[in-house]
Design brief:
single chain, about 350 residues, Rossmann fold, seven-stranded parallel β-sheet, 13 strands, globular
């Protein structure tokens, strides 16, 4: 089986990049894999052929626009092309890491400010993505039922969609909570919520819920610009309770330091940060706009809230802060849930899709 695996970033720090690294590593054990990527930060396993795709790297919309043509210019003959989103104009299989129309709708409803790239090119890219899913791909892998529904709703893709949830992330290392908090200069007796990821997806709601909650600190791990959110925290009177860590090369200290994960996202096709936190035994407070919420049982292995609902988040924070037994029970069940699904499972289910397309 000769597979082309196509992705913008082969980089474990990125959501789709983590997926690529985990799958390529395992696919290479049983298939002839060629990796096509514009950014290759992590070393592919031995035996994988690497082809650099000469796409423009920055800004993000420049990569989106130039990558499909650049890939076409270097693509060789393969039994099957597995693309990540609209990274190829045509492919046998595409994993839908985002449904752009659904994301843009959620961002609009949340009142998110649109950047220049989104204003100028968002609609055009959405139409290209729609054409890919409607006409140019044999099978689509959706990481959640939510994505499968969005593909039908926005792009009328109703057939040949296989739901293969991502894996829960194994813990890299569990640190002592006190030592982890020393890393961020956070009091050992604080009740600490962790917000990790793109700040646009829900940090405003997280800040508002912390402002409504007595005795709750917030640790933020994000590449997003800090200034507008720290100004918001100052206005809410909680600046002294917000600890901005920025982007971390190793998130183990953040998960180890946290009492709960606070993830009131407006949209996530899956939500690997939630999966990672659950593997650490950290109870997740997660909105039902994240695909991973389908794998979380409310008040058993996590706490489900609506998106954009700071009151619901504040209630969850209050309950879990006051009820240590419930918090510990949910954390234990979260860890048990995380142990049930690995990247080996994802790879085997993906290989089944490959065989289905090749034999069809």
């Amino acid at each position: 089986m000769n597979i082309a695996f196509v992705v913008h970033d082969y980089d474990v720090r990125e959501g789709h990049g983590r997926y690529a690294v985990e799958l390529v590593t395992r696919l290479a054990r049983s298939a002839d894999v060629t990796l096509y990527a514009a950014n290759i930060r992590d070393d592919p396993p031995a035996g994988v052929t690497v082809t650099k795709v000469p796409a423009v790297r920055r800004p993000s919309y420049a990569t989106i626009l130039t990558f499909p043509r650049a890939f076409r210019s270097v693509c060789r003959q393969h039994d099957l092309i597995h693309a990540q989103g609209w990274s190829a104009s045509s492919a046998h299989i595409v994993t839908a890491h985002i449904v752009l129309a659904a994301w843009r709708t959620a961002a609009h409803h949340a009142g998110m400010r649109r950047g220049a790239g989104e204003r100028l090119l968002g609609g055009w890219v959405q139409r290209r993505e729609a054409a890919l899913y409607r006409n140019s791909v044999r099978l689509v892998i959706a990481p959640s039922e939510r994505v499968k529904t969005d593909l039908a709703t926005y792009y009328q893709r109703n057939d040949a969609v296989e739901v293969i949830p991502h894996a829960f992330e194994p813990t890299s290392r569990q640190l002592d909570k006190a030592d982890a908090r020393n890393t961020f200069d956070i009091r050992h007796d604080a009740f600490l919520a962790l917000y990790a990821g793109d700040a646009r997806k829900g940090l405003d709601v997280a800040l508002a819920s912390v402002a409504m909650s007595t005795g709750v600190d917030l640790l933020v791990v994000s590449r997003s610009p800090s200034a507008p959110y720290l100004a918001r925290a100052q206005k809410l009177g909680i600046r002294d309770r917000v600890h901005w860590a920025g982007s971390l090369p190793d998130v183990a200290p953040a998960h180890s330091a946290a009492d709960v994960l606070l993830h009131p996202t407006i949209y996530d096709a899956f939500g690997l940060v939630v999966a990672e936190s659950m593997a650490y035994g950290v109870p997740p407070i997660v909105s039902n706009a994240a695909g991973i919420a389908e794998l979380v049982e409310h008040r058993v292995s996590g706490w489900i809230v609506p998106p954009n609902d700071s009151n619901a988040c504040a209630e969850a924070l209050r309950t879990l802060r006051e009820d240590a037994t419930l918090r510990e029970t949910i954390g234990r069940r979260a860890r048990e849930t995380a142990s049930t699904r690995t990247w080996d499972h994802v790879t085997e289910e993906t290989l089944s899709c490959y065989r289905q397309v090749l034999n069809g």
